[in-house]
From TrEMBL:
Its cofactor is FAD. It comes from the Bacteria. Residues 209-301 form the Glucose-methanol-choline oxidoreductase N-terminal domain. It comes from Microbacterium enclense. GO terms for molecular function: flavin adenine dinucleotide binding; oxidoreductase activity, acting on CH-OH group of donors. Residues 41-73 are annotated as: Disordered. This is Pyranose oxidase. Residues 53-65 have a biased composition (Basic and acidic residues). The keyword Oxidoreductase applies. The keyword Flavoprotein applies.
Length: 528
């Protein structure tokens, strides 16, 4: 161990940011070097791109996050910018498909919408910021209940949780009322229709400043602060290999993507938080290959629809003055159309689904001007149910020794299949969505199942647990068999989950970071 502990963090999303912040705050002389393969796309590193108000600037930040499939590389494949190629799905803005169909593309025909973001802040620069807590069987049983409350509330603090965002929106309240009339009697106490907690800071004008990795990094980005002086973020720097002896890591091999130059950075511990496919890929590339690595892949399937709110039903609950005030508030940030977020949470045994109901002034796709719902003054809801996938070893990524991807790392193939129970739950959720939509207005997009991978919430591929035969990481997120190699991200979640996972992953990272800080402090004390 060097005089001052050095920790290498791979990946600059919210989870890598959690490690950086907590380690530097706990260890007064430690240094953290964070490596990020993508570019910095916002002035403040890791900020949510949704906060950019200029539409051109926002589009450019998203394009630059889309990895090599964007811009010139995309053109080199013969695919014009913005084109949809037959047989190919387009990725959500700011992300790029893993199976993009070009040379060096991953193979994911059963999981075609799987995507990633490659930029400072990771997917956390593009996310919707919904941060519900896990409940019932979504909870991770290897973390004691008593400790969980503290971990999750610390995570909520790091992400600037707002449980009442848009709670003053009269249209949002009317949506809750209509859905409560439809479903209220069927839902248990405490798990009824409610506002969805989100990550961000409400502004005095009623808009939101959405949270990103910058929010989590907090003081580390404030020049002049003690922690900022000990924090270094290197963008466009790909970690190619973790140096280790089979039980202890010594550092990482990095490539500066601007120059192509490779070097070794020594570290006292390495934290890999490089998403649910690229983290296990890096471990595999480094010869760290426990059997469960990449396996037990889950997501929550998504059934989705869009509804134009019914004017008569809404007018019974919202006055004309209230609607005018709401429209004026939304006009302040026209490039961020979300104006209220509601939910129906997961509960057991009878409602093992989570619904996310986003109210927006504009539909998520252009409506022809002669469409009867075009220009609906009351607005639209885009809503979906998350449906669970149970972890099975057969589902997951298999990495190759014989084929490399476009980055020169071991390529992978994703296998993914549903059983009869999972198919049945998708049907049930689709029926619930039809009821929810009918309660609110008229469908302008009928309920449908999105292609697998569309949730962008990929879990299980480095699951935590107590048995190394079926998990990659121990309950403190350390890779089994290593004393100073820690993994982070949604990949650690071992449960069947229907809701947005980032809050859970940040809570797991809080536990991992506290433990790693204690360990580094103890090692140091033993040396002195
Ligand atoms: P990421 O944010 O994915 O960051 C990983 C980073 O590692 C990336 O920047 C990547 O470039 C980098 N990296 C990968 N390999 C290497 C390497 N070898 N060397 C160096 N760097 C590397 N979650 C929610 O909970 N709620 C939501 O409402 C929600 N909405 C979403 C909406 C969208 C459009 C998207 C894209 C995601 C959404 N998510 C949501 C998911 C959420 O963004 C992720 O759960 C979260 O960002 C995961 O954080 P992370 O730090 O683990 O990984």
């Amino acid at each position: 161990m060097s005089d001052t502990p050095v920790v290498a963090v791979v990946g600059s999303g919210p989870v890598g940011a959690t490690y950086a912040r907590l380690l530097l705050e706990a260890l007064p002389d430690a240094r953290v070097v964070m490596f990020e393969a993508g570019p910095q796309v916002t002035e403040r590193p890791g900020q949510s791109v949704r906060n950019i108000t200029d539409p051109d600037e926002k589009a450019r930040a998203r394009e630059r996050s889309q990895g090599p499939q964007a811009g010139e590389f995309r053109a080199s494949l013969g695919i014009p910018a913005g084109a949809v190629v037959e047989g190919m799905f387009t990725a959500r803005q700011g992300t790029h498909l893993l199976d993009f169909g070009g040379e060096g593309s991953a193979h994911a025909s059963n999981f075609p919408a799987a995507a990633a973001a490659t930029n400072v802040g990771g997917q956390g620069a593009h996310w919707t910021c919904a941060i519900p807590r896990p409940a019932f069987s979504e909870m991770i049983d290897v973390i004691p209940d008593g400790e969980w409350e503290d971990l999750i509330s610390t995570a909520e603090g790091l992400l600037h949780k707002q449980s009442a965002a848009f709670s003053d929106s009269p249209v949002g309240a009317a949506i809750r009322e209509l859905l409560s009339r439809e479903f209220g009697d069927e839902l248990p106490d405490g798990y009824g229709v409610s506002t969805l907690p989100v990550a961000g800071d409400p502004q005095p004008d009623g808009t939101m400043r959405w949270a990103g990795a910058d929010t989590v990094l907090g003081p580390l980005l404030d020049q002049g602060s003690d922690t900022a002086a000990r924090f270094e973020l290197r963008d466009l720097t790909l970690v190619r290999h973790i140096e280790h002896d089979g039980a202890h890591v010594r550092g990482v091999v990095i490539e500066d993507l601007r120059t192509g130059e490779q070097s070794i950075v020594e570290a006292d511990a390495v934290v890999v938080a490089a998403d649910a496919f690229r983290s296990p890929q890096l471990l595999f590339a480094s010869g760290i290959r426990p059997a469960p690595l990449g396996r037990y892949l889950t997501e929550h399937h998504v059934v989705i629809s869009t509804v134009a709110l019914d004017g008569d039903r809404m007018a019974d609950l919202v006055s004309d003055d209230e609607l005018s005030a709401e429209l004026a508030r939304r006009a302040k940030n026209p490039t961020d159309p979300v104006a209220a977020v509601n939910r129906i949470p997961f509960s057991e045994p009878d409602h093992p689904y989570s619904a996310q109901i986003m109210y927006a002034e504009t539909p998520p796709f252009p409506l022809p001007s002669d469409h009867p719902a075009s220009g609906n003054r009351w607005g639209y809801v885009n809503m979906g149910y998350g449906v669970r996938k149970f972890p099975r070893v057969e589902d997951g990524a298999t990495f190759s020794d014989d084929e490399v991807d476009y980055r020169g790392l071991p390529n992978f193939t994703i296998d993914y299949a549903l059983d009869a129970d999972e198919e049945r739950e998708i049907e049930e959720a689709t029926a619930l969505l039809r009821r929810a939509g009918s309660a609110l207005g008229t469908f302008i997009a009928e309920p449908r199942l999105l292609p697998f991978g569309s949730s962008l919430h990929f879990m299980g591929t480095m699951r935590m647990g107590t048995d190394p035969a079926v998990s990659v990481a121990d309950p403190y997120s350390r890779v089994w068999g290593f004393d100073n190699l820690v993994v982070g991200g949604n990949a650690l979640i071992p449960t069947a989950n229907t809701m947005n996972p980032t809050l859970t992953s940040v809570a797991i990272a809080v536990r991992g970071a506290r433990h790693l800080a204690e360990q580094l402090a103890a090692t140091r004390a033993a040396r002195v």
